[in-house]
Amino acid sequence: MTAKSHQTPDFFFNTNSPEETFALGKRIACMLSQGSVVALEGALGSGKTQLVKGIALGLGINENITSPTYTIISEYKSSDSSLYHIDAYRLNNERDFEDIGGPEVINSNGISVIEWSGRIQKSLPENTITVCIEITGQSSRLIKISGVKEI
Ligand SMILES: Nc1ncnc2c1ncn2[C@@H]1O[C@H](COP(=O)(O)OP(=O)(O)OP(=O)(O)O)[C@@H](O)[C@H]1O
Ligand SMILES: [Mg+2]
């Protein structure tokens, strides 16, 4: 029975500390391969960058990851690929993203993780992995992942 095979299930996680969100990022990194795009949604201070730090370490990147709020796109080299950390917060729309060469970056062989991805929703590829982080308490977060078959 393969009727639903085109659909990808959603996965839900509750984290109770920044460290747990970081650890989930490391776990997500295992699911990524060249060209993967991860869209990160969630309010200010929900933990998007915290998750990216875990993803980076999971990809073997030991550099300190900082928010690319002003640079918009930061590149970190891993042994076999690049991680592009994108913060779309200051972009108004897809046009702004095109002006800075964003589509070329997310359609490259590198792995892209995008904070505030809703700003550039129409630029995201169809197979984008989406992570939504919801603040459920001072140190608790509900994290929903879609676009992966397993995690
Ligand atoms: N369970 C948790 N997971 C992640 N962060 C948590 C958690 N509990 C508390 N925090 C705190 O929430 C903050 C998350 O900050 P972070 O910079 O990762 O958010 P962000 O979503 O990237 O924000 P912004 O939209 O400003 O870029 C940190 O101060 C972190 O210590
Ligand atoms: Mg951030």
Give a quick rundown of the structure.
The protein has 151 residues and is α/β, with parallel strands linked by helices.
Query: Can you count the helices?
Result: 4
Number of domains: 1
Strand order of the largest sheet: 1-7-6-2-5-4-3
Contiguous low-pLDDT stretches (5 residues minimum) are 1-6
Distance between the termini: 22 Å
CATH class designation: Alpha Beta
The description of the largest β-sheet is: 7 strands, mixed
CATH superfamily: P-loop containing nucleotide triphosphate hydrolases
Structural class: alpha/beta
Number of beta-strand segments? 7
From the alpha-carbon coordinates, what is the Rg to the nearest angstrom?
15 Å
Could you say what the CATH architecture is? 3-Layer(aba) Sandwich
Give the distinct bound molecules: adenosine-5'-triphosphate, magnesium ion
CATH topology: Rossmann fold
Would you give an account of this structure?
The chain is an alpha/beta fold and 151 residues long. The chain has a single domain (11-146), classed as Rossmann fold (3-Layer(aba) Sandwich). It is built from 4 helices and 7 strands, in the order βαβαββααβββ. It has helices spanning 18-29, 48-58, 94-99, 102-106, and strands at residues 10-15, 37-42, 73-77, 82-87, 111-115, 129-135, 141-146. It has a 7-stranded mixed beta sheet. α1 (18-29) crosses α2 (48-58). The radius of gyration is 15 Å and the shape is globular. The two termini are 22 Å apart. The relative contact order is 0.25. The model is unreliable at 1-6 (pLDDT under 50). Bound molecules: adenosine-5'-triphosphate and magnesium ion. The site of adenosine-5'-triphosphate has 19 residues, from α1 and α2.
